[in-house]
Design goal:
Blueprint: H1 2-10, E1 13-18, H2 27-48, E2 52-60, E3 63-70, H3 77-85, H4 91-101, E4 105-110, E5 116-122
Parallel strand pairs: 1-2
Antiparallel strand pairs: 2-3, 3-5, 4-5
Helix pairs in contact: 1-2, 2-4
Length: 128
């Protein structure tokens, strides 16, 4: 899979948990979910200096839940938001916008020296 290849190339230990035999999602939602994982993993590889990444994709009562957690150096979230407002590339903040288009929820937990966890939930019913 894409995730396994990217993790192997980057020398990351990978813990991948995806529900087996889950029914297919609407195409646009599948693409959005893939982009969340892709952008999150790309950020881990480029910036985190991590040795391990854990990715989980599962259905919950709230919808489709995606978690990407690394053991890297983490970052100062407030400083990153300031840089993004100044026009610097901020892929994670772009993800927040993409997730909100689907009525989803997006959170990042991070701090310098403590790794990063990105959590996204997409509703499986259309947002009302």
């Amino acid at each position: 899979s894409f995730v396994r290849v990217q993790a192997r190339r980057a020398g990351l230990a990978l813990d991948l948990a995806i529900e087996p035999n889950a029914p297919r999602l609407p195409a646009q939602l599948e693409i959005a979910a893939f982009r969340v994982v892709q952008e999150s993993l790309t950020n881990v590889i480029r910036h985190a200096q991590a040795t391990r990444v854990a990715i989980a994709v599962r259905r919950t009562p709230e919808g489709l839940a995606i978690t990407v957690r690394d053991d890297g150096r983490g970052f100062d979230m407030q400083a990153m938001q300031v840089r993004a407002k100044a026009g610097e590339h901020a892929g994670l903040l772009g993800l927040r916008e993409r997730v909100s288009l689907f009525g989803g929820h997006f959170t990042i937990e991070t701090a310098p020296g403590r790794g990063t966890e990105v959590r996204v939930t997409f509703p499986l019913e259309p947002a009302s």
